[in-house]
Design a protein that fits this description.
Helix content is 29%, strand content 25%. The protein is α+β, with helices and mostly antiparallel strands. The chain has three domains: 163 residues, Immunoglobulin-like (Sandwich); 103 residues, Neutral Protease Domain 2 (Neutral Protease, domain 2), CATH 1.10.390; 189 residues, Neutral Protease Domain 2 (Neutral Protease, domain 2). The strands form five sheets. An eight-stranded mixed β-sheet has the order 5-4-8-2-1-12-15-14. Helix 5 crosses helix 9. This is Signal protein PDZ.
C-alpha cells in the first residue's frame, strides 16, 4: 500500500464477534489529537451511540504507550506529543442489521461509522484500509481497491472520511450474481443461508436498474454493488455511494412466495433510487452535518416518502408487476396509514423532525401518536403526482419535478436547501398547488386520496379488517369479526396484546399491552 496519512488495518476475531482495528496517524495534532466516532449513521436518522461497542482502546508511539483521555461519550484525546501514533481498538459486532456491524464464524458486515474512528481536523485527507481475514472468505465493497484479488482481502482507498464511511463491507462465503444495467456492471452479493433463484433475480434486477437509469437519464456511479445479508425474517436497507446494504428473509430470494419476492425487489428498488435521491440530490441540512449531533429537517417526506412511492412504481413501470398488483400495494400502504390514529396528532413535517427520537424507537403506543414519513410521505407523493397530472392534462407529473431536482441539484452537486421543493412545485404548477402541498405537510388531517383517485377513474373502498393478519389492498372474502380495537399475537396462556388502538373498545375496557 502506498503511503497515506491515515490508514486502518482491520482483522477479524469471528468467535468473539470482534473487528480488531489499528489506526495509523502519521501526523497527529501535537497539542493532542482528538478522535471520534459519528453519533449517527448517514441515511438512518437517530443517535446510535456507536462508541458503546468500542473496547480495548489504547495508543502507542514508537512502542511506548500514549495516554488517551476520554473527553466525551464518543471522543478521545491523545496526550500532546510529536510523531506518528498507532491507536488500537476492538469493535464488538453482533447487530445483524444494515446500520452497524455483525461478525460470526460464517461471515460479517460492517458499516463505516461503526468501525472507523474519525481523526478530527484531518477528515479531508486520504484514508487507506488494509483488510485481513480467513483465506476461504471473500470480501465485497464498492470502496476502490489498491491491492488484492477481486473479492479477496487486500487494501482499499478513500479520498476522504465521508467517502470512507459510505462504503460498507460484506465478507464470508458469498454468492455472487453479476448483471449489467445501462451498460454498467452491477453485482449482487449474498451472505448467509439462502435458496435464491439467481436465474430469475438477474434479469429482474437488471430491469429495475435499467428503468431507473433511463428515468434519471444519467448515473453518478460507474459500477454498483448490492450487499445482501439473509436471516430468518430480517428486512432493511441503507443507501451508500455506488452500493447499498440489504437485509432480507432468506425465503424472499427463492421466489416461492410471490409477495415476499416482490418485497425484496421493492427493497432493491428503494435503495437503488436513493443513488440519485439522497446520494446525488442531497439534503443540505443533513449533508452539512458533522455527524456529531442531530440535524433536524422536515424534508424527509422528499427523500424517504417520494422514494417509497417510486420503489413500487418502478416495479410496475419496469413490467415486474401488473396494474392490479400495484394498486393492491397502494391499498396496503393506505391501510397502514388509516390504522394509525396518530395521523391526527402528528403532521408529516413533525414526523420528519421527530425522526431522531420517534420513528426508530417504536413502542406499544407509537401508532396512536405518530405517523411515518415513509408511509404517509409515499401517499403524499401519490397525491402530488396525481394533482400535477390532473392540473396539466397529464403534461406534468412528479417525474417532471424529479427531473428538475436532478438538473438543478444532482448534476451540479449543489445540496437541496430546506423547503426548496415547495418553491419548485410553485414554479411548475403555481401557488395554489404549492399551498396545498404545504397544508398536506403541516396539517394533521387525511390526504385527499379518494377524490384524486376518483378523478383518475379508480375507486377506493374502505372496509373492516377480516382479521389480525389482514393488510388490506383487496376485497375481504368473509364477514369481518367484531372489532377488538387491538392487535394481538398467540401466547401459551391464550393471547398477548402488543398494540391497543386509541379510542377503541380494548382501550375503553382498560386493556393495555
Amino acid at each position: 500500500m502506498s503511503f497515506v496519512p491515515l490508514s486502518y488495518q482491520i482483522s477479524v476475531a469471528p468467535q468473539a464477534h470482534l473487528f480488531q482495528v489499528s489506526l495509523n496517524i502519521s501526523e497527529p495534532d501535537p497539542e493532542g489529537q482528538i478522535l471520534a466516532l459519528p453519533a449517527w449513521v448517514p441515511g438512518s436518522y437517530t443517535i446510535r451511540d456507536l462508541a458503546r461497542h468500542v473496547t480495548q482502546i489504547h495508543a502507542e508511539r514508537n512502542g511506548q504507550d500514549v495516554a488517551l483521555h476520554k473527553i466525551g461519550k464518543d471522543r478521545w484525546r491523545l496526550a500532546a506529543g510529536h510523531g506518528p501514533v498507532v491507536v488500537r481498538y476492538a469493535v464488538y459486532a453482533f447487530d445483524r442489521s444494515v446500520r452497524t456491524a455483525y461478525l460470526d464464524d460464517q461471515g460479517g458486515f460492517f458499516n463505516g461509522p461503526a468501525i472507523y474512528l474519525r481523526v478530527l481536523g484531518q477528515e479531508d485527507q486520504a484514508h487507506a484500509v488494509l483488510l485481513e481475514g480467513p483465506e476461504d472468505w471473500q470480501v465485497a465493497t464498492a470502496l476502490p481497491r489498491q491491492s488484492g484479488a477481486t473479492w479477496g482481502w487486500g487494501s482499499f482507498i478513500a479520498a476522504e472520511y465521508r467517502a470512507l464511511i459510505d462504503h460498507p463491507l460484506l465478507m464470508g462465503t458469498l454468492t455472487l450474481l453479476d448483471f449489467s444495467a445501462g451498460e454498467r456492471p452491477h453485482h449482487l452479493l449474498i451472505q448467509g443461508i439462502h435458496q435464491a433463484d439467481l436465474q430469475r433475480l438477474g434479469p429482474d434486477l437488471a430491469r429495475i436498474c435499467d428503468w431507473q437509469q433511463r428515468f434519471w437519464g444519467d448515473a453518478a456511479f460507474a459500477e454498483y454493488h448490492f450487499l445482501c445479508m439473509t436471516s430468518a425474517d430480517g428486512y432493511g436497507g441503507l443507501e451508500h455511494r455506488a452500493s447499498s446494504a440489504l437485509l432480507c428473509a432468506r425465503d424472499d430470494l427463492s421466489g416461492r412466495n410471490e409477495d415476499h419476492y416482490q418485497r425484496f425487489l421493492g427493497l432493491v428498488s428503494h435503495e437503488y433510487f436513493h443513488g440519485w435521491l439522497v446520494q446525488a440530490i442531497r439534503p443540505a441540512v443533513l449533508s452539512a452535518s458533522a455527524l456529531d449531533r442531530e440535524a433536524l429537517t422536515r424534508d424527509l417526506w422528499i427523500f424517504e416518502g417520494i422514494t417509497s412511492y417510486y420503489d413500487d412504481l418502478c416495479l410496475r413501470r419496469a413490467g415486474l408487476t401488473t396494474p392490479a398488483e400495484y394498486l393492491r400495494g397502494v391499498g396496503k400502504e393506505l391501510t397502514r396509514l388509516l390504522r394509525r390514529p396518530g395521523r391526527f396528532l402528528q403532521s408529516l413535517a413533525e414526523s420528519s423532525e421527530d425522526a431522531w427520537i420517534k420513528l426508530y424507537h417504536p413502542h406499544a403506543n407509537s401508532a396512536n401518536f405518530e405517523v411515518s414519513y415513509y408511509n404517509k410521505g409515499a401517499l403524499l407523493a401519490l397525491c402530488l403526482d396525481l394533482s400535477l397530472r390532473l392540473e396539466s392534462d397529464d403534461g406534468r407529473s412528479l417525474d417532471t419535478l424529479l427531473t428538475r431536482l436532478w438538473q438543478d441539484y444532482g448534476r451540479t452537486g449543489k445540496a437541496l436547501p430546506e423547503g426548496q421543493c415547495i418553491h419548485l412545485v410553485e414554479a411548475l404548477a403555481g401557488p395554489t398547488l404549492a399551498a396545498r402541498l404545504e397544508s398536506w405537510l403541516t396539517e394533521k388531517t387525511d390526504l385527499p386520496l379518494r377524490a384524486l383517485l376518483a378523478e383518475m377513474g379508480i375507486a377506493l373502498h374502505l372496509r373492516a379488517a377480516c382479521g389480525p393478519q389482514d393488510e388490506g389492498g383487496q376485497a375481504c372474502e368473509k364477514t369481518p369479526p367484531v372489532w377488538l380495537g387491538a392487535h394481538w399475537r398467540p401466547h401459551a396462556l391464550g393471547a398477548q396484546l402488543h398494540h391497543v388502538q386509541s379510542g377503541g373498545p380494548a382501550e375503553q375496557a382498560g386493556l393495555s399491552p
